[in-house]
What does this fold into?
Amino acid sequence: MRGRLRWHGHLNAEGNNMSESNCKQHKPEVEKYNGSPEELVKDLGDLRYDALSKFLKELSQKIKADGEKDAHRERTKLAHALKNSSEKLMESASYINEAWEISKPYMNDN
It folds into this structure.
C-alpha cells in the first residue's frame, strides 16, 4: 500500500503519538462506579426522566467543551465529530425531558 498512511494511535497536544494505554484523560471505564457497563446503562436508564435529561445535558456540555478544545488544537475532524455528538445528546435530553413532562403528573414523590 504505497503512498497511504495507516493510523493506529492518537496524538497528544504536542502532536506526539499516544497509544490508548497511556491516555490519562480518557479512561476505558468509569473509575468511581463499581458496577459493570451493563449495570451502569441500567442504572442510568432507571433514573427518573428529569434526572436523566439533566445528565444528558451535562454530558452534552462536557463533550462540546472537549470538542472546542480540540478545535483550538486544529483537530478539525475530531472537533466536528464531538460537536455533532454534543448536539445529538442535547436533542436526546430534550426528548427525555418531553417524556418527563408527559409522565410527571403520574409520578408519586414518596
